[in-house]
Structures are given as C-alpha cells and as structure tokens.
Amino acid sequence: MYSNRLTNSLILKYGRNVMNDFNSSHVKKEVEAETLGNFLEMYAHVTEQSITVVKSSERPDFICARKHGGNVGIELVKIRRSHPNDILWDRLIEKQDYMSIDNTLKMLQEMAAIKDKKRNEPDWLLPESAILLIALTDRPLAEIQRHLTFIDLPDLYSTGFVEVWLVDITGVEAYNSVELFCIQPERWKGYYPRGLLKPYA
After folding, report:
1. Overall number of domains in the chain
2. Is 26 exposed, middle or buried (0-12, 13-18, 19+ CB in 10 A)?
3. Strands (E), the chain
4. Inside any domain, residue 21
5. What 3 state SS string does 46-77 have?
6. 136-157, pLDDT tens digit by residue?
7. Peptide bond into 154 cis (omega under 30)
C-alpha cells in the first residue's frame, strides 16, 4: 500500500477517485517520483554516491545525473499482484495481506526480461547507462531476500542494466524509510535492511 500521506495528498490534489484514475500519467509519475526519492536517499547512504533527477522521461522513466559526472537513466517498475483497488479488496475481505513469494519471484524474473528487451529498443535513452529499479509494493523484501540468488532468478542477474536494485516500499508508512537489495554491481550486492549500511548476508 502507498503511504497515507501520499494517498491523502493525491486525493486533495486530484479528488477522491484518485485510485480509479491510477493509470493516468500525472498520478503515476507523482507516485513514481516519491518512490524514486525514497530509493535515492537510501542509495546515497549505501553507496556513498549521489544521484539527482534531471527530468522525467518515458524510456526510461527518469533521466538523472551522478554527482561526480555522467548521466544515467532509471527505469522504475512496481511488482504487485493487480490494481491497487483489487489488492485493497484482497486485504480487507480475503485477508490476503501479500502476494505469494512464488508469484513475487516469478514476476521479478518476468519484469527483468521485459525491461531488458525494451532497453535495447531504438528509442531508449542511455541504454548503456541504465539502472533498473524494481519496487516491491506487495511483499516485504525481508521475506524474499534469501531467494534472490542467481540460481533461483537467473534472468534477474542476466540483464544489460549497469545496476539492478530492489526497493521495498511496503514499510515506508511505518518507518519512513526503505530497504534495498542490490542485484548488481557486485561491489554493492546484497541486502540492506533499514539502518544497516553494509550488505546483510
């Protein structure tokens, strides 16, 4: 679920039917920008490098600049079982708090392959300097991090993105911070729980 703070701000700005308008581009971009901001804050702590957003784009979603030079594209994709309205129904009525671990891992594989294919299309900006950021919105990272191996998820480890990160935004409302898992590059590979700056093995 998105934070109450973000949901309330969207309702105030766009009206009470905001969730029904979820696919409208301006709402999606605002949600994406908040997710990216949470990621970049933790990324700076983990890597001791900073990235700032230059502009929104489409392919990839954001064009950014590294502090010490060079632009990078960030493609952001969310992993969730379905439309947020359906997830809310599942949680309130069906008592299914999260999507299954198996489905989460399957979607990670599929998304990595889809996005890598798109990265190689002619209209993609900065294809050789692109970061894939996968946001977990429907399963906490702590519950799947031990399954995030090359053996279990070879497609996730075989893309042409210069960096691949998972960001857990399921706990943003409660903790006001995110957890990360770096798939690549090797020097940052691993799980970063809240408050821990070195990878957890």
Report:
1. 1
2. exposed
3. 51-56, 62-66, 71-79, 130-136, 163-168, 179-184, 190-192
4. no
5. HHCCCEEEEEECCCCCEEEEECCCCEEEEEEE
6. 988 999 999 999 999 999 999 9
7. no
**Calpha distance 25→97 (Å, rounded):** 27
For the sheet containing 62-66, what is the strand order? 51-56, 62-66, 71-79, 130-136, 163-168, 179-184, 190-192
pTM of this structure: 0.79
Return the exposure string of 32-48: e unless at least 16 CB atoms fall within 10 Å of the residue's CB, then b: bebbbebbbebbeebbe
Both tokens assigned to 9? 């701000």
Q: Are 138 and 86 in contact (CB under 8 A)?
A: no
| Residue 89 domain boundaries | 34-192
What are 68's two structure tokens?
């010490």
* Structure tokens, 58: 């489409």
Per-residue pLDDT of 108-122, as tens digits, reads 999 999 999 999 999
